[in-house]
Design a protein that fits this description.
Elements lengths: L7 E6 L16 E6 L10 E5 L9 E4 L2 H13 L3 E6 L10 E9 L6 H4 L1 H17 L9 H16 L6 H8 L6 H11 L5 E3 L11 H10 L3 E4 L7 H8 L4 H10 L10 H13 L6 H9 L2 E4 L1 H15 L7 H7 L20 H22 L3 H25 L14 H18 L3 H14 L6 H14 L3 H12 L6 H14 L12 H4 L5 E10 L7 E3 L5 E2 L1 H10 L6 E4 L3 H10 L1 H4 L22 H5 L1 H27 L14 H11 L1 H13 L1 H4 L6 E6 L5 E9 L7 H12 L3 E9 L5
Parallel strand pairs: 10-16, 15-16
Antiparallel strand pairs: 1-6, 2-3, 2-5, 3-4, 5-6, 7-9, 8-9, 10-11, 11-12, 13-14, 14-15
């Protein structure tokens, strides 16, 4: 085993604020490390002790950073490593991190343990060294959020230098040359809702001199500083007015000799002031406003656009941002462990990225237009997306091969974003009964995106709209063509099959389709009556349960199955429990080492999870794993996965909704063959099969280790099965599951 005795590590003391009153640090002060396994916040915590104390009890100076402690703690416990060192410098701020140097002094091995644990030791030591190396670029006085921000900038420039011009890289890299105060102030402002801020109201305890911080940021182009009314534009003054308090707005109205009795609502006061500015009726209004606000600042458009791009490239989605770091730092969210093996770029060049960003802007405009019912803007966005989708799609198809393995990259293309805009446009046009326009857009989508899991839905809408416009033959042909498409799956495929059976009757079609018998299969139905609380149209059905309490149809059905329905236990879950079981059973497969699918440490699933490549790339591993589940090892795999990863974020896994006891019971009673078949379908096409599962999962034991399971779709009065739900029920029947539909109806009124 590697001898690490004498290796020196550079790190910091953190958490000083809790112990700063106990000791005055000085350069060269001797320190030692002590694991703190009973720490309620972190069982891997390691205390930093003063070795210079004359008393028997060493004083606690703080802790090692959590990122390093998670690897050094097991090394100290299992391999008897010990560390001593000294303080290398003392920061001015009493709460800043303290730079230290520690040395590994000894390692004791016991017999064969050296050979058994050599790989585990090497792995822990490698990660510890990686943490130390990655924090070398962080200055000693850096705050956590400041460090996170710098990390985003550093990683994005390191990983994607080809996506920035030399000037842009120089600008972003200049951030680290700013003072700590300037860096902290910028991050604080960037994460706040702006765009304008009053310097007089800026107050952060860690920003010691806000005025100097603003000057530094302004000089480097990160902030726009406005203190001259002649430099303000119309939109600027409108936004700055929002910075004023109600009393300040009242004062300005009184000085303008306007009616001051506009109520106390800020919106009313602003509404009365704006006409004076827009119409140019009061040239002194700008001066009056700036006299109240003082100097105002905002983040420059250059800094805002580049940092937004950096965030997008770092997290690879629009949902996560810098606050994601805080959730991890505070222990609110824990992400899984996996290796990021990156050999290909998502964006080949800057043109691809800029086109993608422009498409996102159009998509955001579309969302705003739909929310505001701005029909003119909606139609404009549709036109823009439609005009660009063909050429953009062609470029995508030329630059990527037809291999299914590469399909997960498509969601990062401009054409994919425009396709979402067009689909929103289709829904809008359908609501407006402009079916011909919707048909043209759907045909464009189908022509441009030949390998896309959404083709089933597009084909279904095309067939429906053709029927709406009085073309049943064309509608039937579209549905028949859809069944020849390998990308038309699950509920959409079944909906098209049912349309063909309805539209394809003689004389249009004389031959009965081969799938007719399968589609027309009867699904077992159970009828249940209950006392209704309400049966109004458009409202969720409510009934009185067997205990007299109000409940929904699902809870009423659970009570029925627990009693006269057969003594079943169960849960109302829909797809939730199945995705949780899938995530736990397939955890090692989901987070296995596959190149390019893990690119940040904040992912809950690989990028190809919802594509065909997920199964194809891992086929041998998946099938080997499914064989174990088929052979009855499902419960053991589930328990091991739960105990190893409980609380860790994973796509589809809900740790709070179902207990381990419920999950074990469900897995045992479902049985290996059915469970393996279900997991195979989710692995092959997670996107299509991750919704629409039956409402209830029921189970009952026959003895201690055997049982049976039943899946039930519950329908209240006036409800009917969706095509996706019907597809699931028939698939589950094919997999060997016991399935049925429970129809709940109100007790007939007595005569």
């Amino acid at each position: 085993m590697e001898n690490v005795s004498g290796v020196t590590l550079q790190t910091f003391i953190v958490g000083r604020r809790f112990f700063s009153h106990e000791n005055e640090l000085h350069v060269g002060a001797n320190i030692s490390l002590l694991p703190d396994p009973h720490n309620v916040k972190d069982p891997n915590a390691i205390k930093v002790l003063s070795a210079d104390s004359g008393s028997c009890k060493s004083k606690v100076l703080g802790f090692l950073p959590r990122e390093l402690a998670q690897y050094l703690s097991p090394l100290m416990e299992k391999y008897c490593l010990s560390f001593e060192g000294y303080v290398t410098s003392v920061p001015k701020n009493p709460f800043d991190f303290v730079p230290i140097q520690i040395v590994c002094h000894k390692m004791i091995l016991h017999g064969e343990k050296e050979f058994e644990d050599v790989e585990a030791f090497k792995c822990l030591w490698k990660y510890a060294i990686h943490v130390v190396e990655s924090t070398k670029n962080c200055p000693p006085g850096i705050t956590k959020y400041q460090q996170n921000f710098c990390l985003v900038i550093h990683e994005v420039i390191r990983s994607n230098p080809h996506l920035f011009t030399d000037e842009e890289k120089k600008f972003m890299e200049s951030f680290t040359s700013l003072s700590n105060d300037s860096q902290r102030l910028f991050v604080r402002l960037y994460t706040r809702k702006g765009p304008w801020f009053r310097i007089s109201t800026i107050s952060y305890s860690e920003v010691l001199d806000p005025q100097e911080a603003v000057k530094g940021l302004s000089a480097m182009g990160y902030l726009c500083l406005f203190e001259d009314k002649d430099k303000l534009h119309d939109n600027d003054i409108k936004e700055i007015l929002n910075l004023l308090t109600v009393s300040e707005l009242h004062d300005i109205l009184c000085k303008l000799k306007k009616n001051c009795n506009h109520g106390r609502r800020k919106s009313d006061l602003l509404e009365s002031l704006l006409p004076s500015f827009v119409g140019g009726l009061c040239p002194h209004l700008t001066s009056l406003v700036l006299d109240k606000t003082g100097t105002c600042i905002r983040i420059s458009s250059k800094a805002e656009s580049l940092i937004w791009r950096a965030e997008r490239l770092f997290f690879l989605n629009g949902e996560q941002n810098l606050s994601t770091f805080l959730l991890v730092d505070f222990g609110i969210v824990k992400y899984p462990t996996y290796d990021c093996i990156i050999s290909e770029q998502i964006f080949p060049g800057q043109d691809d990225l800029l086109a993608y960003e422009e498409a996102i802007e159009v998509a955001q405009l579309m969302d705003e237009a739909l929310d505001g019912n701005n029909i003119e803007l909606v139609l404009r966005c549709i036109k823009i997306a439609d005009s660009r989708i063909s050429s953009s799609s062609m470029k995508t198809m030329e630059s990527t091969t037809s291999e299914l393995v590469a399909t997960f990259y498509s969601s990062f293309s401009a054409s994919w974003v425009y396709s979402k805009v067009v689909l929103l446009g289709v829904s809008f046009l359908e609501r407006e009964r402009r079916y011909n326009d919707a048909i043209n857009l759907l045909k464009r989508l189908l022509n441009c995106f030949t390998c896309d899991g959404r083709r089933g839905y597009w084909t279904l809408r095309l067939s429906i709209n053709l029927e709406h416009t009085g073309y049943p033959n064309e509608s039937l042909t579209a549905a028949e063509d859809g069944l020849q498409d390998p990308w038309v799956r699950a509920g959409s495929r079944m909906a098209l099959q049912r349309r063909i059976l309805r539209l394809g009757k003689p004389p249009r079609r004389w031959k009965t389709p081969s799938f007719a018998a399968s589609i027309k299969r009867k699904i077992t139905e159970v009828h249940l009556q209950g006392r209704p609380l309400n049966c109004e149209m458009g409202m969720k059905n409510r009934f009185y349960g067997e205990d007299g309490e109000q409940c929904g149809v699902e809870q009423l059905a659970l009570q029925y199955y627990a009693g006269e329905g057969g003594g079943w236990q169960g849960v109302h879950t829909e797809s939730g429990i199945w995705l949780t079981i899938f995530g736990l059973l397939m955890w090692d497969i989901i987070f296995s080492n596959v190149p390019n699918v893990f690119r940040t440490r904040f992912q809950t699933a690989p990028l190809d999870m919802e594509t065909d490549s997920f199964y194809l790339v891992r086929k041998s591993c998946i099938e080997s794993h499914l064989q174990k589940i088929h052979d009855g090892m499902g419960e053991e795999i589930l328990v091991t996965s739960w105990e190893s990863h409980v609380g860790t974020a994973c796509r589809g896994v809900n740790w709070d909704r179902h207990s381990l006891t419920e999950l074990r019971a469900a897995v045992t009673c479902i049985g290996g063959p059915c469970l393996a078949s279900l997991c195979r379908h989710l692995a092959q096409d997670y996107r299509s099969w991750s919704s629409g599962m039956p409402d209830l999962l029921l189970w009952r034991f026959h003895g201690e280790y055997r049982g049976e399971a039943k899946l039930v779709e519950v329908k209240g009065p006036r409800d009917r099965l969706s095509e996706q739900q019907r597809a699931w029920l028939l698939l589950l029947m094919d997999c060997g599951f016991n399935t049925e539909v429970c129809k709940v109806s109100p007790v007939p009124m007595s005569a």
